[in-house]
Amino acid sequence: MSNFVLTLELKTEKWQEDILDKRFNIGRQIYNACLGELYKRYNTMTQRKEYNKVLEMPKDKDRNKEFNKLNKKYGLTEYSLHKYVKPMQHYFKKNIDSFTAQKIATRAFRAFEKYMFLESKRVYFKKYGELNSLEGKSNGTGIKFQDNKLVWNKLEISAIIKKSDEYAQMALENKIKYCRILRKFTRDKYKYYIQLMLEGVPPIKINKKTGEIKNSIGSGRVGIDIGTQTIAISSEADTKLLELAPDVNYIEKEKRLLLRKLDRQRRANNPNKYNEDGTIKRENKDRWVKSNKYIKTQNELRELQRKQADIRKQNHEELANYILGLGNKIYVEDMNYKGLQSKAKETTINKKTGKYNKKKRFGKSLANKAPSMFLTILDNKLKFNGEELYKIDTWSVKASQYNHIEDKYIKKDLNERWNDFGDYKIQRDLYSSFLIMNVKNNLKEIDRGLCFKTFDNFKTLHDKEIERIKHSNDKTISSMGI
Q1: Whether residue 53 is found in the same domain as residue 162
Q2: Residue 409, phi then psi, degrees to nearest 5
């Protein structure tokens, strides 16, 4: 069954905020204690001969079964961690209930599981103020939402629900599965929210003036070619080449200036922590000194990052709604963003200049534009409408290389942004989105016949979009080639 989230701001007083802050810090301590215990158990297990024997086994189901047995034996399971956290929770029972403590333990276990399965290099303990969410298991016990209030261990805080907010009132008619308390740093202070996980689908938004349904889903095929900074969209109704999260750029410049300011202040406050060449003294274990001005700059940066995240999410939501209006069968390449984010392993030399190529790849662009986050938002919206995001096989389809007219694959360099068809040229990303739109149902081949049927319409929309971009005052990204 589908679920959706409703976030409501809490109307807190100072004494209530102090209690919540105390509980967040206790939650952080429980989380760190669970992580520490998991590290101990895991290190004990890996030092045993039986572990090394299983490690040498061929990678198959039998090996996995043996690993599961070892995990149970050494207490590396979610259930055993729940048992470990029980006496700890009993000590903090006035602040943290047993179900919330179990969810904290589960959270620590899920993080450590990635380390065990080699999906991450290490698991980090949370510093003071870094744990900013706590959740319960159900709306019946622990963290509850009753009579439009957060009710938790003798603490009752009203949620802000405006009379004009029809969406929130309609959403609250659904069954609440469980609740989550959030703490966000906004404009030099913390604000507190309750997130309700609700069963069902989000209420339909209606335009009060026209009576029309907002963001209704269209019908037909849509192809998406998404890059690190841009997105090309192709459908029967429209074709677009856009920048992802365009409003985020304006914050990045301010962010850079604040980071440089922080570095200057940190050096001025801690001259004993730096060598003469400006590098940090690794052997110096003194505490870092933070002046009031430094903390003020930190808070300014924190606020900027919050704004950046909010603007990025809003841009992604608007773009997802636009794409949903074009069609209900949406196709996209299955991309490995983690691979694009990491630095290149091999050292290569530029043939033209003879200099070493930089190992940096697309980490900054991906963090700034968050294409993976956009696809998650789009997929969630599709699921609410009984559809799904179709991810095509990137290596089989090879949309960036295929030519449907000549029926052959032509490899191109990254700087080649146009496909030459003799009498005319087609922008590379837009053509890729057109081909992705016309894949077969197996998601591994391009339907050449369908390409011929829809190409004339695509060519008309393509030319119209290129003219729009050329005459637009917006700054274009170099990868567009326009």
Answers
A1: yes
A2: -100, 130
Does residue 248 share a domain with residue 178?
no
Whether 384 is in a domain gets the answer yes
Taking Cα atoms as reference points, which of 215, 205, 213 lies closest to residue 377? 215
Which domain covers residue 89, as residue numbers?
Answer: 3-199
| 334 & 470 share domain | yes
For residue 94, how many other CB atoms are within 10 A of its CB?
Answer: 10
32: helix, strand or coil: helix
- Tens digit of each residue's pLDDT (9 = 90 or more) over 333-353: 987 666 565 666 676 777 667
Determine which helix (DSSP H) or strand (DSSP E) holds 180, and give its type and residue range: strand 176-186
Select from 199, 233, 265 the last residue of a domain: 199
Of 59-63, 82-86, 181-185, 358-362, which range is least confident?
A: 358-362
Predicted pLDDT at 359: 57
Cβ atoms 9, 192 nearer than 8 A: yes
User: What is the residue whose two structure tokens read 């103020």?
Assistant: 129
Tokens of 21: 């802050």
Number of domains in the chain: 2
Assess whether 23 and 71 both reside in one domain. Answer: yes
Last residue of a domain, one of 164, 199, 234: 199
> Is residue 64, in this structure, part of any structural domain at all?
yes
- 80, amino acid identity: S
**Which tens digits make up the pLDDT trace of 280-330?**
999 998 999 999 999 999 999 999 989 889 999 999 999 999 999 999 999
Note whether 148 and 244 are same-domain residues.
no
CB 156 within 8 A of CB 150: yes
Closest CA to 231 of 123, 375, 416: 375
Contacts of 115 (CB under 8 A, 6+ apart): 121, 122, 123
Rounded CA separation 196/168 (Å): 11
pTM: 0.81
Cα(first)–Cα(last) distance of the chain, in Å?
A: 45
Closest CA to 10 of 193, 170, 277, 250: 193
Residue 234 domain-assigned (yes or no)? yes
Q: Are residues 194 and 78 in the same domain?
A: yes
Instruction: Write down the H helix ranges in 179-276.
Output: 249-269
For 141-169, letters b (16+ CB in 10 Å) and e give ebbbbeeebbbbeeeebebeeeeeeeebe
Same domain, 162 and 249: no
Say whether both 155 and 238 belong to one domain.
no
